Amino acid sequence: MGPSGMGLSKARKLRAVLCAAALAAFLATALPVTLKNSAQHFAWARRNIRLSPAEARRDLLGAAYMQRIEEIRRLIPEHEAYFLVDGGVRGDGSALWARYELAPRPALLLGDLRGKRLRHLRWARRHPLPWVVIAYPPPTPVRVLPRQRFLAEMVGQRTR
Amino acid sequence: MSHVLASFLALALFSGTGWALTSLVPTLRGLPGAPRWGYGYLLGLAWTCIALYALSHGLGVPLRLPAILAVATVPIVIALLVRTRSPARQRPRERSPWTRFLFVLAVSFAALVSAALLADAVASPESDWDGRMTWTMQARWIREAGTVDPPVLREKRWFVSHPQYPVLMPLAQVVALEIQGQADDDRAARPLYAAFFPALLSILYAACRRWLGRRTACWVLLVAANLPLLSFEGEGGARSSYGDLPLACFYGAGLLLLLFRPRLPEGLAAGLLLAAAVLTKNEGLPLCLAALGVGAWSAFLRVRRQPWMRAAAPVVLAALAAAAAIGLLHSWRSHIPNREDEMYLARFSLRRLAATFLPQARIAIPLAVDRMLAREQWGLFWPLALILAVLGGRGLRRPPALRLAIAAAAPLAVGLLAYTFHPDPAYMVQVTWNRMLLHAALPLLLLLGACLRRARHPKGAPAGPPSSGRRPLGVQISGGAPP
Questions:
Q1: Residue B462: inside a domain
Q2: Please, which residues 51-110 of chain A have a Cβ atom closer than 8 Å to chain B?
Q3: Residue A41 shares a structural domain with residue A21
Q4: Structural domain range at position B365
Q5: DSSP characters over B358-395
Q6: Domain shared by A91 and A145, yes or no
Q7: What is the pLDDT of residues B166-204, one digit of tens each?
Q8: Based on the structure, what is the number of domains in chain A?
Q9: In this structure, are residues B116 and A35 in contact, taking their beta carbons and an 8 Å threshold?
Q10: Which of A53, A97, A106 sits opposite B184 (nearest CB)?
Q11: How many domains does chain B have?
């Protein structure tokens, strides 16, 4: 702590010592974590730096998932919209992940498949968008199907 | 590998523009390299993106490379024409070997963490929740449409999360993507977020050194560099593409400029930073108002020694800049139907506040404490802060500690208010409380420094530099006692 506390009373000295001890305890636990985190981030950087955008995302989301995304990108032109259905479980962000990968194509969300109810199924009847994308949490690949087939499947499920 | 070059070109563009802007502000011009870069990066990003926001929304200027370069070069041209000279910097006082060691240790850790974050950011794709859900998503739509008003935001049927969130940071991403020239590599924009970490640390160190002395500043820098919440945290830290660290920087830096005896250029720079806070996140608006309130209070304290016009003018200028940003945000939002959003303001009512505040706070506060004790985000920061507050709490009597405390409390008050109007406060605390604390990072860490200094030197040791003469972001603390 330096020599500035030499003339202090015992209580003040104790305060300075406690302060040093608190800082030492914080740093003793924090510095190894910082070093570990830094090493981990450098390792990720070394692994990913040479990857192309597609390879990097394949590494992140899984090869099958990204392969399906690439297929949909070829199927639906960049300026064309599509219907999106959330096929995952609550809070897993399936629809968000698929929407991100398919951007800038705008998505019209029909709802989720949980409980086999789609909030906005009527939109699929009203809007003439040709494709429906059903999103699952990565690495489970998303599904893509023509609107009519999707509607038929939905009607079939209801009647069963 | 082109994305690596593009990333650094975008960083260089904002830094260059910001460096030119700092040359027009006397207290920033006199700062050493790193803190001056820190302020410069924030100012450069704020200037470029606010101008693009206004030009695109107001005049329909396409968000393409020519517009970006034109906007970014304006401050550089002005700085070249004005040709200000940096004040001669005082030779630093001889440091003791212990202080020198501490300085090297703190800077080494700050540099190590910053380098690790930047390396990962240029190499690894976007993987965090809000980045994919909101910020980078908005950037892609905006870039594709070439405007801040893309049809996907304006037409209600499209699935957009938080369409009314302000888009300053997505615009910064658009700048990086435009420089890179391709849309599907989000790695080009990630370093823009990572760079906020060294910017925050350098600003913190400069303010702390001037207020509390070099040794305390080194300790505070060392603590901040080792706080995972600021750096490696995937939800809000520099590793993520969330708007929280940028907001913490804009808010904290704007506040500091208003706190330390500003003149007109400092007031304008503070206004630019607070305007950026307003356009970065929803929380930016109340935080901007809090910073202006604290700035007005500081100006009031200065009235005893300065003509009131001179004391008030910088805050008025900052308030005008912030008001312009609020106007821009309101105009931009007015065309965007809100959906997929918590809509706190729509739920706000005084009656509801009175009825639900205590029950909701009773749920939220224990969970908030639990979040603060999470070792992955905080390490032992809060136990350390508690011990230092007990040992050196009298350091908080030193002006402008009270104003800093109010500034640090503002984000937490915003959080508590939001939890009052949310149907599931327990969930909201889990996902947002640490980010609210992050918004308060700069004033909070300065207060920690004040306690630390007092605990280390219980008698009120010699620390800060003398209060005579104008110093860059200095210790001429309005209404404050000399250190």
A1: no
A2: 51, 53, 56-57, 60, 78, 81, 84, 93, 95-97, 99-100, 103-104, 106-109
A3: yes
A4: 2-83+101-338+345-456
A5: HHHHHHHHHHHHHHHT-HHHHTTHHHHHHHHHHHHGGG
A6: yes
A7: 999 999 999 999 988 876 788 989 999 999 999 999 999
A8: 2
A9: no
A10: A53
A11: 1
